DNA sequence: AAACCGTGGTA
DNA sequence: TTACCAAGGTT
């Protein structure tokens, strides 16, 4: 299994050679992504926010990046957009605060920087939703400035390159990883170098099956057991929960309620029921979804509630804002978490359900 | 430091 | 089928 070539060179001693090997590989074999065709810092920021904790394929396949820029082509347009439209454009990507932060950042650029995107690491870092990684990404990708960055890919590459065996989440490890990123960074060509470093992690120095034979910098790599690295702290234990949701429909409208909490405000979902209030209601759908470390069994109940009729207060857990949403006009325009969007669509499509209410009375 | 925030692919 | 996790940041 260890066909991995032995280390013959030290990247910290032969930094230029390391950079050269990485960049030569990238120039010959680097991929063409939409966000690599622009140096507009706003567009770069959009791509980086979208790609936080999100697979490239997800952003590419559903054209989130292109669609966002078509709808919000510049900072001024984004700054004036409604939250509903922001979230709708982001629907399905998850971590919806990223969309709100993008707009907040646009407003900071307009209000505090006269509409000109800042080009200093500190000012970019100060933008909402922009941490150390994203600041380095914007500085290097948009301005080709020598800013180091460490993302999941880079952390994995470095942990193997330097045979770093401590958990990468610790403060000490983070400090070390960023120091290496700074040590190896070229003064010129940071855009290409950082792109190459990340793409190496994405394509060759992968988590489960590192392809060391095809790696352009294998001669610089210290570890003899790449598959054991990086080490990470154990993830949080999965918590199983059951959610009872209410599917009420009348006159072509369905009853929805807003998500609560600052991170999910503005998203709409089916009203949730306390378990005791779901007893006896017909079950329209059982499904499962995962959210962070939670594993949710979602049970959708039907109820005969006429539009305008007050839902019994005792029927609901609490009382977040709720409203009747027209299926033809409003439903496609609002943003919903994917599990609820799917659940509602599934119930509506299921015309064979044996339940005691009619979809279109 | 640790909890929190989404989603879909993959083994 | 379940568990893991990917171009992280905020609180």
Q: Summed up, what is this model?
A:
With 361 residues, this protein is α+β, with helices and mostly antiparallel strands.
Task: Outline the fold blueprint.
Elements: H1 15-29, H2 41-51, H3 56-61, H4 64-71, H5 75-80, H6 83-90, H7 97-113, H8 121-125, H9 132-143, H10 152-161, H11 171-184, H12 190-203, E1 239-250, E2 253-258, E3 268-269, E4 272-273, H13 275-278, E5 283-291, E6 294-303, E7 322-326, H14 338-349
Parallel strand pairs: 1-6
Antiparallel strand pairs: 1-2, 1-4, 2-3, 2-7, 5-6
Helix pairs in contact: 1-12, 2-4, 2-7, 2-9, 9-12, 10-12
The chain binds a DNA duplex (11 and 11 nucleotides) through residues 47-59, 92-98, 101, 128-134, 137, 149, 151-154, 169-171, 198, 201-202, 207-208, 235-236, 238, 261-264, 289-293, 295, 337-339.
Percent helix among the residues? Answer: 25-40%
Strand segment count: 7
Number of helices: 14
What is the annotated CATH architecture of the largest domain? Orthogonal Bundle
H/E topology pattern: HHHHHHHHHHHHEEEEHEEEH
CATH topology of the largest domain: Endonuclease III, domain 1
Rounded to the nearest angstrom, the radius of gyration is: 25 Å
User: Which of globular, elongated, flat, extended, rod-shaped describes the shape?
Assistant: globular
Return the domain count.
2
What class do helices, strands and sheet pairing give? Answer: alpha+beta
């Amino acid at each position: 299994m260890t066909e991995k070539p032995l280390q013959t060179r030290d990247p910290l001693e032969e930094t230029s050679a390391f950079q050269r090997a990485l960049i030569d590989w990238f120039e010959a074999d680097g991929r063409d992504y939409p966000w690599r065709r622009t140096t507009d810092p706003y567009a770069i920021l959009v791509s980086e926010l979208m790609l936080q904790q999100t697979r490239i394929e997800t952003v590419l396949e559903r054209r989130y990046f292109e669609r966002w820029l078509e709808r919000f082509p510049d900072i001024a347009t984004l700054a004036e957009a409604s939250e509903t439209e922001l979230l709708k454009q982001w629907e399905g990507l998850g971590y919806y605060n990223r969309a709100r932060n993008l707009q907040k950042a646009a407003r900071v650029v307009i209000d505090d920087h006269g509409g000109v995107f800042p080009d200093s690491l500190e000012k970019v870092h100060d933008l909402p939703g922009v941490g150390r990684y994203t600041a380095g990404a914007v500085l290097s990708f948009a301005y080709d400035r020598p800013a180091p960055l460490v993302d999941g890919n880079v952390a994995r590459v470095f942990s193997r390159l330097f045979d770093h065996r401590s958990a990468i989440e610790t403060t000490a490890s983070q400090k070390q990883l960023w120091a290496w990123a700074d040590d190896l960074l070229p003064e010129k060509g940071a855009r290409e170098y950082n792109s190459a470093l990340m793409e190496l992690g994405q394509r060759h120095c992968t988590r489960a099956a590192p392809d060391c034979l095809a790696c352009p910098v294998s001669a610089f790599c210290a570890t003899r057991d790449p598959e054991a690295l990086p080490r990470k702290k154990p993830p949080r234990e999965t918590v199983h929960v059951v959610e009872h949701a209410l599917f009420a429909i009348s006159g072509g409208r369905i009853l929805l309620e807003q998500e609560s909490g600052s991170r999910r405000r503005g998203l709409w979902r089916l009203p949730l029921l306390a378990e005791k209030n779901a007893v006896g209601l017909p079950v329209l759908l059982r499904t499962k979804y995962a959210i962070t470390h939670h594993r949710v069994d979602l049970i959708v109940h039907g109820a005969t509630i006429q539009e305008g009729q007050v839902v019994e207060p005792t029927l609901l857990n609490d009382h977040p804002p709720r409203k009747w949403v027209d299926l033809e006009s409003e439903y496609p325009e609002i943003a919903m978490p994917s599990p609820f969007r799917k659940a509602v669509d599934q119930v509506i499509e299921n015309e064979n359900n044996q339940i005691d209410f009619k979809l279109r009375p």
